[in-house]
């Protein structure tokens, strides 16, 4: 392999796809992660088709029904019902929508802002770079969870606020990574060569910088998506995320907490499992992406 | 070394001033701090009176200068709910959170570091797979969920531990364990990758090639260098635990900083929220300074640089 950093080359479409298949089949953990993440996406998109019940439908005659596999449960409500008789499984399925929305749009906003700031800092350099990076360090020095909790409590409960909150507060991480990559790439042989042949900045950006940013940023985005879903559940649990009438995993755990001593453990168990499984799948996928996409690690291993 | 200490200390002080500015703006994000802090049913006259009383009607820059100035001279403002100095309320709650976080960190280190070393020294083998699995599991388990499960199993069903409040040292067991899992998981993973890196380094190869026993190589080179690298990791994780304490203390009804933050937010007592945020941020900055100094002192490559 040559000196400069490289990305996975996608070549023609079919060859790229075959290469992708080969890479994912070689790593069972990555494959499991990918399958779980895709299933989560499908569940979120097709929630109305998949869910056996209306997540908001109350039924006092069927309230506090235990899960199907325990005594007194019925397959009508596989994971049981809550105190208002709402189906836990359907609520978890609909709750995936909140989590996926927060993770996906939060990460998309964070990547956009972070990449913009990081590119400016990396290319302009000098005082502007110093000022931007001090701001990044400053924001990152405050414990993240505390910032998120305080901002959420100031802004009030809405999905839009939560998405914006995660998008903006996670952007410094992406700015720092982008800047680091830009500084490294600027000195790389192929960028100097492109410059020497008279390539203009837009051309260098699209041909040489962006393709090399995809790997590190996609990897970071996968981990951050998982973190955002995790923190959103925490905010919901504290009553600081989406309004209580929207089913979300954190809101469900909050109501599970209120029935801790009344013998309804399934209200606490299943939403938490959903959060942990989501975190697990995104971490497995992120680890795999880092292995195949991060040129430095690939070279070190090769 | 002296100039390094001085430079890092000044840097941390500046960082704290920056955090004070951030905290000032945080409560103004909604645009109107007066209606944020007043009860929803307050009339517009009451809100206006409150606005004037708190000085929120003055120009923003004057308010900012005023806030930064008073914080730096030790005046953190009054709590709206308790009508007393916020700093006093915060300081009262510190010992419990400190104890809880320290216990959790201790548990995370005692479990996480040996597991990470085990995995890193046996890369690819079964013990490595187990260590990685436990590490990932700890990392993705929400502490607020684990806390609920622990209460259901060990407090409600088995009755081994109290489910809330402080009633002797036994009350710390469940909360500290619940709080520790995330840090434990990350410690396993970071220790493992550090050990892997150290094992592959030139000085370990040299030590091996000059005939040192595996025991000596591990003790003198691998563990020592891993321990140095873990110093900064541990300080970051400790900061993370201070955040997680918000969930754990409110679930277990423990009177610490975290539950105070939860209560202050529910009561819309934002002057108190600000002081708690400042206090935790200051602790984080202090910890990272301490870790850097310790790191410099332990690692001759930094200590001898100047």
Query: How many strands, which pairing sense, and closed or not: the largest β-sheet of chain B?
Result: none
Count every beta strand of chain B, where a strand is a DSSP E run of 2 or more residues: 0
Q: Helical residue percent of chain A?
A: over 70%
What is the 3D shape of chain A? elongated
Radius of gyration of chain B: 24 Å
Give the end-to-end Cα distance of chain B, rounded to a whole number of Å. 6 Å
Q: What portion of residues of chain A belong to β-strands?
A: under 5%
Taken as a percent bin, the fraction of beta residues of chain B is under 5%
**Order of H and E elements of chain A:** HHHHHHHHHHHH
Secondary structural class of chain B? mainly alpha
Strand segment count of chain A: 0
- Quaternary structure classification: heterodimer
Uncertain parts of chain A: 1-11, 297-302
Biggest interchain interface, per-side counts: A-B, 43 and 45 residues
- Distance between the amino and carboxyl termini of chain A: 9 Å
Mean pLDDT of chain A: 84
- Poorly predicted runs of chain B are none
- Count of helical stretches of chain A: 12
Q: How would you portray this structure in words?
A:
The complex is a heterodimer of chains A (302) and B (306). With 302 residues, chain A is mostly helical. Chain A has twelve helices and no strands. Chain A has helices at residues 13-26, 28-45, 47-50, 88-124, 126-141, 144-155, 159-186, 189-196, 201-237, 249-258, 266-293, 295-301. Chain B has 306 residues and is an all-alpha fold. In chain B, 77% of the residues lie in helices and 0% in strands. The model of chain B has no long low-confidence stretch (mean pLDDT 87). Chains A and B meet through helix 5, helix 6, helix 9, helix 10 and helix 11 of A and helix 1, helix 6, helix 7, helix 10 and helix 11 of B.
């Amino acid at each position: 392999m040559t000196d400069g950093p490289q990305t996975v080359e996608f070549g023609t479409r079919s060859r790229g796809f075959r290469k992708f298949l080969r890479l994912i089949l070689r790593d069972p953990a990555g494959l499991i992660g990918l399958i779980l993440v895709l299933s989560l996406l499908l569940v979120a998109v097709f929630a109305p088709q998949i869910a056996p019940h209306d997540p908001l439908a109350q039924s006092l005659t069927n309230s506090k029904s235990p899960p199907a596999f325990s005594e007194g449960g019925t397959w009508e409500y596989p994971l049981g019902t809550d105190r208002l008789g709402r189906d836990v499984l359907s609520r978890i399925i609909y709750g995936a929508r909140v989590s996926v929305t927060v993770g996906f749009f939060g990460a998309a906003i964070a990547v956009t802002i972070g990449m913009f700031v990081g590119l400016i800092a990396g290319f302009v350099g000098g005082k502007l770079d110093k000022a931007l990076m001090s701001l990044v360090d400053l924001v990152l020095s405050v414990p993240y969870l505390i910032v998120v909790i305080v901002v959420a409590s100031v802004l009030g409960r809405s999905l839009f606020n939560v998405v914006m909150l995660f998008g903006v507060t996670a952007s410094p991480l992406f700015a720092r990574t982008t800047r680091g990559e830009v500084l490294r790439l600027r000195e790389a042989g192929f960028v100097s060569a492109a410059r020497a042949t008279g390539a203009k900045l837009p051309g260098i950006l699209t041909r040489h910088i962006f393709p090399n940013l995809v790997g590190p940023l996609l990897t970071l985005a996968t981990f951050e998506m998982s973190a955002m879903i995790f923190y959103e559940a925490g905010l919901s649990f504290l009553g600081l995320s989406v309004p209580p009438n929207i089913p979300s995993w954190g809101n469900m755990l909050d109501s599970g907490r209120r029935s801790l001593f009344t013998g309804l453990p399934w209200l606490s168990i299943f939403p938490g499992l959903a959060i942990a499984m989501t975190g697990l799948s995104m971490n497995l996928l992120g680890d795999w992406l880092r292995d195949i996409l991060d040129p430095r690690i690939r070279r070190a291993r090769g | 070394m002296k100039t390094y200490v001085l430079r890092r200390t000044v840097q941390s002080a500046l960082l704290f001033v920056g955090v004070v500015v951030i905290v000032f703006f945080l409560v103004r994000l909604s645009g109107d701090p007066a209606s944020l802090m007043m009860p929803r049913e307050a009339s517009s006259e009451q809100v206006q009176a409150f606005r004037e009383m708190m000085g929120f009607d003055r120009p923003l820059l004057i308010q900012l200068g005023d806030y930064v100035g008073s914080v730096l001279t030790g005046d953190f403002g009054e709590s709206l709910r308790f009508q007393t100095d916020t700093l006093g309320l915060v300081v009262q709650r510190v010992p419990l959170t400190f104890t809880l976080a320290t216990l959790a960190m201790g548990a995370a280190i005692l479990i996480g570091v040996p597991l990470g070393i085990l995995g890193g020294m046996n890369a690819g083998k079964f013990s490595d797979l187990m260590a990685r699995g436990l590490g990932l599991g700890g990392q993705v388990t929400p502490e607020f969920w684990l806390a609920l499960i622990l209460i259901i199993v060990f407090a409600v069903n088995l009755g081994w531990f109290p489910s809330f409040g402080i009633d002797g040292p036994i009350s710390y067991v469940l909360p500290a364990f619940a709080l520790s899992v995330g840090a434990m998981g990350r410690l396993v993973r970071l220790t493992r990758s550090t050990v892997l890196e150290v094992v592959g380094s030139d000085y370990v190869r040299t030590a091996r090639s000059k005939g040192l026993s595996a025991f000596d190589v591990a003790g003198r080179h691998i563990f020592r260098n891993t321990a140095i690298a873990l110093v900064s990791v541990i300080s970051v994780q400790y900061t993370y635990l201070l955040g997680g304490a918000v969930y754990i203390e409110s679930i277990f009804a423990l009177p610490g900083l975290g539950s105070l933050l939860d209560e202050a937010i529910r009561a819309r007592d934002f002057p108190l929220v600000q002081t708690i945020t400042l206090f935790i941020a200051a602790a984080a900055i202090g910890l990272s300074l301490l870790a850097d100094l310790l790191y410099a002192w332990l690692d001759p490559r930094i200590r001898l640089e100047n």
